[in-house]
Structure formats: structure tokens, C-alpha cells
Amino acid sequence: MENEPLIDDALKSELSGLYRAQGRHYHNLAHIEAMLALAGDYRELLGDPGATEAAIWFHDAIYDSKAKDNEAQSAALAEKKLAGRSDPSRLNRISAMILATATHQLPPFDDAAATRDASLFLDMDLSILGAAPDAFDAYERAVRREHHWVEEPMWRAGRSAVLKNFLARPHIFHTQEFRQRFEPQARLNIARSLAALSIGQGTIT
User: Fold this and answer.
1) Domain ranges of the chain
2) How far is Cα of residue 66 from the mean position of the Cα atoms in its chain?
3) 127 CB-near residues (< 8 Å, 6+ apart)
4) Distance (Å, whole) CA 190 – CA 186
5) CB neighbour list of residue 78: distance below 8 Å, 6 or more residues apart
6) Rounded-to-integer distance, Cα 146 and Cα 152, Å
7) Rounded to 10 degrees, what is the CA torsion of 111, 113, 117, 122?
8) Are 67 and 147 in contact (CB under 8 A)?
9) Distance, first Cα to last Cα, the chain
10) What is the spatial distance between Cα 188 and Cα 194, in angstroms, rounded to a whole number?
11) What is the mean pLDDT of the chain?
């Protein structure tokens, strides 16, 4: 059971279909592929690469921009689809990692290796914040398109609150590796986006 991949080709195909759904301008297959590439970059630091890969594949499987429980729904889907593929404690770890993407606060794991994996996983999810300016701007526009139904004043207020929350943290990223690679640019990108939102541009063009 442990030797078999948690995410086989059939499951990848099924999940890929969800990520290709209409209206997914950012939370799509390209986001998953970018995270999987980062998981490859830092594979030697992961205690359980297979569990981390599973968390990546499932973490945005359910995505409705009007819903408040996407993470819980995605975690539930993971529990259902992965049942019997590994031991319950490992599956619980995957579920907790998915749920943590709601706040990007670390799950209260007792195990140091699990905490490390969750730290890297959450940092991979936020790495777009520290992307090159043009890629970050494209991300901001894509997220706005996913929330096209939100009126502009509400969008500016809500998006500003989210970005200010990240900027107010002592560190945006949990791990030293990601802080060195992405943190300075992330802070520049967020500050630039907040400035645009404050003067009513909504998204950077």
C-alpha cells in the first residue's frame, strides 16, 4: 500500500478535469503544475514527498469563488478518493495540509517532519506572490476574473485586506528557503498591488 503512488494516472486525469473547469483563471492546472515543479525543486527536504504531492493535487480540487468552504470540500474529496490507498494517519496529514490553505497557518502537527512538509507545501502555494512582476500582475488579474461577480469597491476592500494581512506578518513564507527565494519580491509585489487598489485601479494592467 505504501509503495503504490497515492495519485495514479487515473486520479490525475480525474483531477485535471476539475482544474480545467470553466472560470478557473488562476486556480487551474497551471497552478498545480507550478507547485509540483517546486515540490521537485525541494524534494530532498520533504519527509513524505508522496503525501505532499497528493496535497498539491487536491488542495484546490473544489473551487467556487462564491463559496467559503472550498478547502474543507477539497479535503473531504481527498479523504474519499484516497481512502484505502494509505494508512489513516498519513491521509489525515494530507487532509490537514489542505485545510491549512484556508489561512496559511501551520497545522498543529506533533511530528517535526510533517510540520516541515506542511511549511514547504504552504510556501509553494504562495510562491506566486514572489514571482516576477509580470507574472504576479497576471495572477492578480486572473484572481479578479475568478471574482468577476464582486463589485469593484467591495473587491478593492476585500483584496486589500487579504494582501495587508500577508504584508503585516513577520514572514510571508514559513521556510528559510522560500524566504530567501521569494520574500523580498513578494513584499514589493504586494505593496505595488495595494497602491493600485487604493487609487481604484482594481487590478494592475
Assistant:
1) 9-126, 128-198
2) 17
3) 34, 35, 38, 178, 182
4) 6
5) 54, 55, 58, 61, 91, 94, 95, 98
6) 13
7) 50
8) no
9) 49
10) 10
11) 95
Which triple of cell numbers denotes residue 94?
494530507
Kindly indicate the confidence band of residue 1, based on its pLDDT and cuts at 50, 70 and 90: very low
Of the CA atoms within 13 Å of residue 194, those in its CB half-sphere come to: 16
What is the per-residue pLDDT across 147-203, written as a single tens digit (0 to 9) for each? 999 999 999 999 999 999 999 999 999 999 999 999 999 999 999 999 999 987 655
pLDDT surpasses 90 at 19: yes
121 in Cβ contact with 174 (< 8 Å): no
Q: Using one digit for the tens of pLDDT, what is the confidence trace for 118-127?
A: 999 999 999 9
Asked if 117 contacts 48 with a C-beta cutoff of 8 angstroms, the reply is yes
C-alpha cell at 180: 530567501
C-alpha 143/C-alpha 147 separation (Å) is 6
Cell numbers that stand for 144 in this block: 479578479
Per the document, the length of the chain is: 205
- pTM higher than the cut 0.90: yes
Find out whether 73 and 62 touch, Cβ atoms under 8 Å.
yes
pLDDT, position 200: 73
Distance (Å, whole) CA 24 – CA 138: 13
